[in-house]
Amino acid sequence: MITHGNTTVVLDIGPDIGEQLIKTRTKSVDAFFVTHAHDDHISGILDLHKVSAFADIPVTVFAEQTVWSYIDDVFPWVEVNRCDVSPQDQVSVGPLTVEPFRIEHSEQFPEVGYSITDGQATAVYAPDVYSIKARIA
């Protein structure tokens, strides 16, 4: 999770995302970014679906098309604001710029890492990585 002023982004949506948000007393999240389609990185989308569908709170999730295809196969009823993202895209969320980059994890599940910057400082998130060929930050 990265917070800058009133802007919060969360990287990956593991099965304990609800617990994590409660423990950190996070009241709102501007965007969620998913790295790849492994359950330990996306299964928390079920909790986000509940918030979006039943509490009528908008939930925005950025992921590659391969992730959305997997979610459609496994959780076809999930409703969130879906945003496609690809390596080298730049996504602005408040004062933050989030840029996905390709990393290698497995052929079956392509993966991206994320570089997040506010223009002064940069954080990089690259879980489950085998190798990185991209230039980061």
Write a short abstract of this structure.
The protein is of the alpha/beta class.
What does this structure look like?
The protein is an alpha/beta fold and 137 residues long. The protein has one domain: Metallo-beta-lactamase, Chain A (4-Layer Sandwich), CATH 3.60.15. It is built from four helices and ten strands, in the order ββαβααβαββββββ. The strands form two sheets. It has a five-stranded mixed sheet. Strands 6, 7, 8, 9 and 10 form a five-stranded antiparallel sheet that branches. A hairpin with a 2-residue loop joins strand 1 and strand 2. It is globular and about 40 Å long. The model has no long low-confidence stretch (mean pLDDT 88).
Summarize the helices and strands and which ones pair or pack.
Blueprint: E1 2-4, E2 7-11, H1 17-23, E3 31-33, H2 39-42, H3 45-54, E4 60-63, H4 65-74, E5 81-84, E6 91-93, E7 96-104, E8 111-117, E9 122-125, E10 131-132
How many DSSP H or I helices? 4
Reported for the largest beta sheet, the result is: 5 strands, mixed
Question: Could you say which overall geometry the principal axes of the C-alpha atoms support?
Answer: globular
Helix-strand pattern: EEHEHHEHEEEEEE
User: By CATH's scheme, which homologous superfamily applies?
Assistant: Ribonuclease Z/Hydroxyacylglutathione hydrolase-like
